[in-house]
Design brief:
Blueprint (H helix, E strand, L loop, with lengths): L28 H15 L7 E2 L2 H8 L3 H13 L3 E3 L5 E3 L10 E2 L11 H20 L12 H15 L7 E4 L2 H12 L5 E5 L4 H9 L3 E5 L1 E2 L2 E2 L1 H11 L3 E4 L13 H14 L2 E5 L3 H4 L6 H4 L8 E6 L11 E4 L7 H10 L5 H12 L2 H23 L3 E4 L5 E5 L6 H10 L2 E2 L1 E2 L12 E5 L6 H15 L14
Parallel strand pairs: 4-16, 6-7, 6-10, 10-11, 11-12
Antiparallel strand pairs: 1-3, 2-3, 5-13, 8-9, 12-13, 14-15, 15-18, 17-18
Helix pairs in contact: 1-3, 2-3, 4-13, 5-13, 6-7, 6-12, 8-9, 14-16
Amino acid sequence: MSTTQAPVRKLKKPNRAWIRPLEDGGGARYRQIADLIVGAVKDGVLRAGDRLPPQRDLAQELGVDLTTVTRAYNEVRLAGLLDAHGAGGTYIAASLSEQSGTIDLSMNIPPLLNGENFERLMQSGLAQVKEQISAGSLMTYHVGGGSKSDREAASTWLEPIVGSVNPDKILICPGAQAALSAILLAYTQPGDVIAAENLTYPGFLAACRVLQRGVVPVASDDQGMVPEDLDRVCKEQGPRLVYLVPTIQNPTATTMSAERREAIHAVATRHGVAIIEDDPYWLVAGDAPPPIASIAGRSAGAPVFYISTLSKCLAPGLRTAYVLMPESESMEPVLDALRAITLMAHQSTVSMASIWIRNGMAMDMVQKIRQELGQRQKLAAKILPGILRAHPHGLHLWLALPSRLDQYRLIQTAQDQGLGVASSEAFSAQEDAPNAIRLSLGGASDQARLVTALEKLAEILGTAVAPVERRRVIV
């Protein structure tokens, strides 16, 4: 039986029931008009297909310039609520329920998860996973670091990054967070310290805090961790591990040059300290030097644990990450730790990832995401004021704030206007965090909503505000 949707009504006469006088001191007039429209849609006063007054008529009625109304209509159109038909008029396109909710610029989520390409990925993977369920192999225990087939798929994934690798040296983990925690449990004890950049991934800081491992901050510059300061820290603090995000570093977006990677490994080798190389963005970057795990040959002097997760370049819901173990290290200590933490990875999503890798769809999706991120970074560079640090295809950017603008008040104001942003405090390995925020560009469902979010943020940034009580943002 087929079904048809009821036609959307089209009112010939404009709906004026939502119009209210603008308030003095109520903020920018274009914003007040846009808020009136959005609020009316939310309250059901304006419905899909309702016609708005011509811009010139509304400007005269509200006593504002025509450009103010034009800007307000454009704001609502970018949010996906208006259909403009030129001389045919401007109409409400959809209910607010389809567009509501905070635009999250705080979480590093890949874009395009709601698009047709990703839907095709899911359909292709689910069909083959269903066959595995029927065969009875999917719902049993998988506790050995991954099946032979899945580790071979992982080696295919890693080959363009680190070259040809032995599948037997790969561990499959339920996400990079589990991998980090397992390595920390396997190779350190409570009270041990790990060297890391002074601004670093919050998941690593959280794992160290819960596992009672200390974090010693190492100075960084526009190429990442400074080798001379790492040498000092190794001499003075004796860290058991060095933790790095060398490509599109989280949060500062810096990428280490090949020379810097070699210098860092040389310092670690001199002091006999192992390295955790957390590298989620290498494939997205497209121009990064070879990983330290590659150029160092995973030597015994400074063994490198290389982590590649699919969460940042495909989808967080896959909960699949690959750990390339150093040639000199046994897999058993990390396997034991993984069993204690999670027992095993989620085989359904691991199988999905393996299917996508083998049929080439995973790498094709990465390229589409990379292209989308390139477009989003250009939008951000055009809209946002101030000093931005970003990679042309990065998932996030680092925005330094003027000293007169308090980041915690900014975050509160952004939240009040439906925007989520991340405070520098969440990334800081030391007490004093810089006055900056990290913005993630993948959380907006499309570029139009990203533009709306960035323009709102740019407007907030245009006015310095007084300090308020600090609020910690964990991402």
